[in-house]
UniProtKB/TrEMBL annotation:
CDD domains: PoNe_Nuclease. The lineage of its organism: Bacteria, Pseudomonadati, Bacteroidota, Flavobacteriia, Flavobacteriales. Keywords: Endonuclease, Hydrolase, Nuclease. This is UPF0102 protein SAMN05444267_102921. HAMAP family: UPF0102.
Amino acid sequence: MANHNDFGKKAEDLAVEYLQKKGYKILVRNFRFQKAEIDIVTEKDSLIVVVEVKARSTDAFMLPQEAVNKRKISLIVSAANHYMEKFNIDQEVRFDIISVLPDEKGKLTIEHIIDAFEAFDAN
């Protein structure tokens, strides 16, 4: 596995730990639908929370969350709709982003952006 894949997996694992500590129930990881993938699907306070994890080794060019463009949002929303239909879930959905970056000392830090985008943002 390439180093960037290892880093991405480590970032997702860190995000899961963070979410669990915050009281989120992890429902599924890496849910795939066609060309789309949802990194983490969670539940908290009767909401389904779809979480996109973005990790970068540096923010010199862009913040990790800036990589979630309209096309990516459209794919995530499509996968989320499929997930909700497949499992016959009738709950409100929120879309969050977890950004993972190393600090000056190399320790990975998390920024949790709650309600980062809405389904209609993709249009």
